[in-house]
Design goal:
Oligomer: heterodimer
Low-confidence stretches of chain B: none
Number of strands of chain B: 0
Structural class of chain A: alpha/beta
Mean pLDDT of chain B: 91
Number of domains of chain B: 1
Helix content of chain A: 25-40%
Strand order of the largest sheet of chain A: 6-7-8-3-9-10
Radius of gyration of chain A: 21 Å
Shape of chain B: globular
Largest sheet of chain A: 6 strands, mixed
Order of helices and strands of chain B: HHHHHHHHHH
Helix content of chain B: over 70%
Chain lengths: 285, 277
């Protein structure tokens, strides 16, 4: 296990999320696990990024933290509760204090923007309708979407949908926010808006956030700490500045977006000459 | 070398047979496994149904989508099938000089068999496929996962209301189908052909038994409603989260519902006939 991060940083050192030696396979008989011996901690009040290339296992890790999957080996502890041993009712109780922003928003398509944000409030509280309305408008105002409260999800752009989904995710002031690829498919302005909102909402609500992404520039601007995952293992971690300066080959290739490095350009295949029959013998034949 | 050649050919044939047997076994095991999964799903569905009755508005909303929006196809189909029954029945009964029994023939055919069965098939095509596609697309767009992460059970909030809406809608639609069918038969037999109005209705009233005919038809439509609703919700919930997965699940709903309805109809009819003798 590596040293506990944030030891010398401004954020408190108490971990809200503690991932201990986690292995995970979707199929128990699969000899190649998706995650191999993952250790990471997310202190309260911080914004931590889990980064890596597509298929590296970072979304799987987020699902383990959210309790959607259970670790094959090891332990995931969130707010003092082991997600591997938690019962369904307790998990739902814990999830009332979590918010999750999905890759494409996952708004309920049969509900308006207002009703989408009101959904968790109505499901989990018995507040009078007037208070629900004020609360929803407050959240929509925070993400700049109050004017779109009557629109349906189909009428929103990708960036607008993501902002509404963010308002819905923070509707009950969660203790822990999980972001699954929040910048995917957004234009640069929408990306910047979402990034700023994520950081501001985290600080304003006094929450803790975990961001899964492969958008290096946006992530490094807003997070306190980064874990870099490749092939199911953590290959590097540190503050954004440490990651930018890192000389580790994989970290360097990923952060700088270099073509040359440990990640090959080609998917494994037999020799090109064999595929196109360029061997001398083949040519004669 | 003929001996080696013959041996190789024999080996290939044996390998083909082995693969066929393995494939058959795999399909059988897969079918049993899937049946077990459906049974577990059904138990979970029933266990999650409490909130559906506490917030009955959720069920009524789905009754509108599955039942009310199916009215047009049910009414039109019922009317046409009743008219065809009237025409075919009159043609046959005329040969035996008993055209006054046309009302009985139309009513019994509809109430006992055609009403529940054809409504079930139409319901599976119209509402069942829509339920599967909607749930499947909610899965593809992560709406079910989002609900789950909000500590709201998709089983209670999405699946159970749709299931109970199907169970409630089906007998009502079947009853309406039968009524429209009888009306269609009346138009052909009485209005167009000229069978006596009083004979048409009085023969029907005397021969159609409420418990033996009508109630058995209601029981059938209720059972078909459960079958179609379980299949439609299960296929949607179990659909792979891809466009192709949802498309296949929708097709499976229609095919499996149709086969299940026909099989159940045979079983229920044999039980009901035995009970009636």
């Amino acid at each position: 296990m590596h040293a506990f991060p944030f030891a010398n940083s401004r954020v408190p050192a108490e971990a809200l999320v503690d991932v201990r030696s986690v292995n995970f396979s979707y199929d128990a008989s699969d000899p190649r696990p998706v995650l191999k011996g993952i250790d990471l901690q997310v202190p309260r009040g911080s914004v931590v990024a889990i980064m890596g290339a597509s298929g590296s296992g970072k979304t799987t890790l987020l699902r383990l933290i959210g309790g959607q999957l259970r670790a094959t080996e090891g332990e995931v502890v969130v707010a003092g509760r082991s997600m591997g041993r938690i019962e369904s009712a307790q998990l739902y109780h814990l999830r009332r204090r979590m918010g999750m922003l999905f890759q494409f928003g996952a708004l309920f398509t049969d509900l308006s923007v207002f009703e989408n944000v009101a959904f968790p409030v109505r499901e989990h509280t018995h507040l009078p309708e007037r208070i629900v309305r004020d609360l929803v408008l407050l959240k929509l105002e925070a993400v700049g979407m109050r004017g779109a409260k009557h629109l349906m999800p189909a009428e929103l752009s990708g960036g607008m949908a993501r902002r509404v989904a963010l308002a819905r995710a923070v509707a009950l002031d969660p203790l822990l926010m999980l972001y699954d690829e929040p910048f995917a498919g957004l234009d640069p302005i929408a990306m910047a808006v979402i990034g700023v909102l994520m950081r501001k909402l985290n600080d304003a609500l006094g929450g803790t956030s975990i961001v899964v992404s492969h958008d290096v520039a946006e992530c490094l601007e807003i997070v306190d700490y980064v874990y870099l995952v490749a092939d199911g293992v953590i290959v590097g971690h540190g503050t954004p500045d440490e990651m930018r300066r890192s000389e580790l080959p994989y970290v360097r290739q990923f952060v700088q977006g270099e073509l040359e490095g440990p990640v090959p350009f080609h998917y494994p295949a037999r020799a090109y000459a064999d595929d196109v029959r360029l061997r001398a013998g083949d040519a004669r034949a | 070398m003929p001996t080696t050649c013959g041996f190789a050919q024999e080996t290939r044939v044996l390998e083909r047979v082995r693969r066929s047997v393995a494939s058959l076994g795999h399909r059988v095991i897969d079918g049993i496994w899937r049946t077990g999964t459906v049974a577990r799903f059904f138990v979970r569905l029933l266990a999650s149904s409490g909130p559906s009755f506490q917030r009955f508005g959720l069920v009524m909303r789905e009754v509108y989508f599955t039942g009310v929006l199916s009215l047009v196809i049910i009414i039109v189909s019922g009317l046409f099938i009743g008219m065809v029954l009237g025409l075919q029945g009159y043609e046959t009964l005329q040969k035996y000089g008993s055209t006054e029994a046309i009302g009985v023939l139309v009513a019994l055919s509809l109430v006992r068999e055609l009403g529940p069965v054809v409504t079930g098939l139409l319901f599976a095509s119209r509402a069942g496929s829509a339920i599967t596609a909607e749930i499947g697309l909610m899965k593809v767009t992560e709406q079910l996962s989002a609900m789950d992460m909000m500590a709201v059970s998709p089983m209670s909030r999405v699946i159970a209301p749709r299931f109970w809406a199907g169970v409630i809608s089906m007998p009502l639609l079947a009853a309406l189908f039968s009524c429209m069918g009888v009306f269609g038969g009346y138009i052909i037999a009485v209005v167009i052909i000229g069978v006596d109005n009083g004979v048409f209705w009085s023969q029907m009233q005397a021969s159609v038994d409420f418990r033996y005919d009508v109630l058995n038809g209601v029981v059938k439509s209720f059972v078909f409603g459960i079958a179609v609703a379980v299949i439609a919700t299960f296929e949607g919930y179990d659909a792979p989260p891809t466009a192709e997965g949802v498309s296949r699940a929708t097709t499976r709903t229609v095919v499996n519902s149709a086969l299940t309805i026909l099989a159940l109809d045979l079983i229920l009819t044999s039980l009901m006939l035995r009970g009636g003798t």
